[in-house]
Design a protein that fits this description.
Elements lengths: L5 E10 L2 E10 L2 E6 L9 E3 L4 E4 L1 E3 L11 H8 L3 E6 L12 H11 L10 H6 L8 E7 H9 L8 H16 L4 E5 L10 H7 L1 H5 L3 E5 L8 H15 L2 E4 L6 H13 L4 E5 L5 E4 H5 L2 H4 L3 H8 L2 H11 L13 H4 E5 L13 H8 L3 H11 L5 E4 L7 H7 L5 E3 L13 H16 L5 H15 L16 E4 L19 E6 L2 E5 L2 E2 L7 E2 L19
Parallel strand pairs: 1-4, 6-7, 7-8, 8-9, 8-21, 9-10, 10-11, 11-12, 12-16
Antiparallel strand pairs: 1-2, 2-3, 5-17, 13-15, 14-15, 17-18, 18-19, 19-20
Helix pairs in contact: 4-5, 6-8, 8-9, 13-16, 15-16
Pfam family, one: Amidohydro_3
Protein name: Amidohydrolase family protein
Organism: Agromyces soli
Length: 536
């Protein structure tokens, strides 16, 4: 037999739904052959020792757009088995354009992108080729595109403006975007009507891309309304749909998805196995109408004494009446990240605890914190009645589910979901409860997302498929991440990306084998060596 470049010896791999012992030979970037243990050879041998060899996991919702170049973030992803991420979420990312809008509005979520100097999706994806060990697929961000054409205006676009935005979406799809995203609780995305969105999604539908959305006020008790709006947009545009970080009461979520399916729209969705969320602190505590004018206008308003007095005396005392915030909101919001180094001591503290240290009221403290950090503050949000694991687990059983961490890696006390979403799913659903077989786990954590987002020959351990491989020891899995102190997961010590070892014995090897993934579809499930990328 012809020697390959690397042999993974004595692995447990999936043959259909069953696990079998095998050797896996890697030829360049692809899996060359699988055979009985001891029958294949290669110049370099990696002893799996009976560990599972699985296709690399796909994080369907990541905010590591700029953070992926940091070694700590790379370890966070690889140690839980993630080899590919999908960025450009919530309608905001660096491309197309000069990146200024993403840095101004979402800088506290995305971090700075050290290599992007402007352009389009082509330039953004090129910046991920050979620069980290992680593969990166990108969505065309409709909020960024709207801002580039219309700024912060809230009115409907003119025919010329709509055409310019549609052209930008078409260009992004031609350059390899896997779909388009909207953030309808963010701005200016919230200004877009359903008709505008459907029009902008026509170039996505033309190449059978996917529409990914943070729904408009469409979570928790409003999940039915949110999903119905998504389904209506997808029907109008004739586009495939995907809902970001879907959460809500289980009966409502189940009914909403079933009604969308009955209307002819099959939605996929992502979720993470945590009850708490994380977002910009300003979104949780400031009036939406003030944020709707853009971050610069919101900051100018917030810097006035009259605005601060009104917030402290009138608006914030009434915040507890909102069901998504809770009556004791200062105790439920924990600062995750700040812009100013002198405020770093605040991270990991609740608003109530931090305010007590300064002698200020929580209302006065949070206003000062946002104003002095130019709104660039993130917060982990607890809820008055957290959803228990058994409910989160049931949502992950619904048709169309994939794992998405919603990982944010900026700040001194970030949410642990970016460090352990995939470990927690595998540990709890496979190892501890047996609710998922290994094959089902691969479907939820890798294969379905690879198909849904057209990530090419990924998601299977089979001849000809891309050698993004994770060596996983179920008995050694450790879900070590916690609120305020995210730690890398345990149980994944060796990872290959594109056939090259990027993680060895739990350490980065320095191999930057990751690439920007251009949309590429496998036309048949057989012999993907022969498949060509999807041309548009």
């Amino acid at each position: 037999m012809t020697d390959g470049s690397l042999l993974v010896r004595d692995a447990r791999v999936l043959a259909g739904d069953e696990l079998v012992r095998a050797d896996v030979r890697i030829d360049g970037e692809r899996i060359g052959e699988l055979g009985p243990v001891g029958t294949l050879t290669a110049p370099e041998v990696l002893d799996a020792g009976g560990r599972l060899v699985l296709p690399g996991f796909v994080d369907a919702h990541s905010h590591a757009d700029g953070a992926v170049f940091a070694e700590g973030v790379q370890l966070a992803l690889l140690r839980q088995g993630v080899t590919s991420i999908v960025i450009g979420q919530d309608g905001v990312s660096y491309a197309p354009g000069d990146g200024a809008y993403a840095r101004e509005y979402f800088g506290a979520l995305l971090g700075d992108h050290p290599g992007y100097r402007g352009g389009g999706i082509a330039e953004l994806l090129a910046g991920y080729d050979g620069t980290s060990p992680i593969n990166v697929a990108a969505l065309a961000p409709l909020g960024t595109i709207r801002h580039g054409v219309m700024g912060d205006r809230a009115d409907a676009p003119t025919a010329r403006e709509l055409g310019a935005m549609r052209d930008a979406v078409a260009a992004a799809m031609q350059e390899g975007a896997v779909g388009a995203s909207s953030g309808l609780d963010y701005f200016p995305g919230a200004h877009a009507s359903d008709a505008e969105l459907a029009a902008l999604l026509q170039p996505v539908a033309a190449v059978d891309g996917v529409y990914v959305t943070h729904m408009r006020h469409g979570y928790e008790s409003q999940v039915g309304i949110g999903v119905a709006e998504v389904a209506g947009i997808c029907r109008e545009a004739r586009v495939r749909g995907h809902v970001s970080h879907l959460h809500g009461p289980l009966p409502l979520v189940r009914r909403a998805l079933a009604e969308a399916s009955a209307s002819g729209v099959e939605l996929s969705f992502d979720s993470y196995p945590y009850a708490r969320g994380c977002t910009l602190l300003a979104m949780a505590v400031l009036p939406a109408e003030r944020l709707s004018r853009g971050p610069a206008a919101a900051l100018r308003w917030l810097s006035t004494r009259s605005a601060q007095r009104w917030l402290v005396e009138e608006w914030l005392p009434g915040l507890g009446h909102r069901p998504d915030v809770g009556t004791d909101w200062p105790a439920l919001l924990t600062v995750a990240g700040v812009e100013r180094a002198e405020d770093a001591w605040v991270t990991g503290l609740t608003i109530r605890a931090a305010a007590a240290r300064t002698g200020k009221t929580p209302e006065a403290f949070v206003v000062r914190l946002l104003a002095e950090n130019a709104l660039n503050v993130t917060a982990v949000m607890a809820v008055p009645s957290p959803r228990p694991w058994n409910v989160l687990a049931r949502i992950a059983e619904l048709p169309g589910h994939v794992a998405g961490s919603d990982g944010i890696y900026i700040g001194g006390a970030p949410h642990p979901r970016g460090w352990s979403t995939f470990t927690r799913f595998f540990l709890r659903k496979v190892v501890q409860s047996g609710e998922w077989s290994v094959a089902e786990a691969v479907e939820h954590l890798s294969a379905r997302a690879a198909r849904r987002f057209d990530l090419g020959a990924r998601g299977r351990v089979a001849r000809g498929w891309t050698a993004d491989l994770v060596l996983l020891d179920p008995a050694a899995l450790v879900d070590a991440a916690g609120y305020g102190a995210p730690l890398v997961s345990g149980g994944v010590d060796d990872v290959l990306v594109g056939g090259r070892l990027v993680l060895r014995d739990g350490r980065l090897t320095g191999e930057h084998a990751g690439r920007g993934i251009r949309r590429s579809r496998i036309r048949t499930p057989h012999d993907p060596i022969e498949q060509e990328p999807l041309h548009v």
